[in-house]
Predict the structure of Nitrogen fixation protein FixH.
Amino acid sequence: MTPTRGFTGWHMTGILIAFFGVIIAVNLTMATFATRTFGGKVVENSYVASQQFNRWLAEARAQKALGWQHAVTLGSDRRVGVTLGVAGKPLAGALVSAVARHPVGREGEVAVRFVSAGPGRYESDYPLPAGRWYLHLEVVRGADRAAFIETVQ
């Protein structure tokens, strides 16, 4: 009969070191990915933003009362198209502008200007850079104002 080696304290030490080593390595990897892809800032000052909440709600109610509908498209040439309407009719005579923001802040903001392409139809005057963007649209017609956020890719 050959003698068998038993489970020793060194075996347990090796298992514990391997176990916690994997946990630490995964945590460091995830922390590295998190800090490289998200700047962590949603608003400049959360207290100041919280003081604007009621005004934002009032603006949202006023915008909803306008009844404006919108549709955003991205052409094969990466030009952004915006179609505006109210009660099924084109919304003509509006001024449309936008700011395109990268979702994780890796790219700088891009100001997007629109020109009229027909009744209720507006098209950006130059293409949007490649990638996914949040488009913060602002539509003004007379004293009426509306803001929309859309994702384009």
Notes: The longest helix spans residues 9-37. Helices lie at 9-37, 46-51, 53-66.
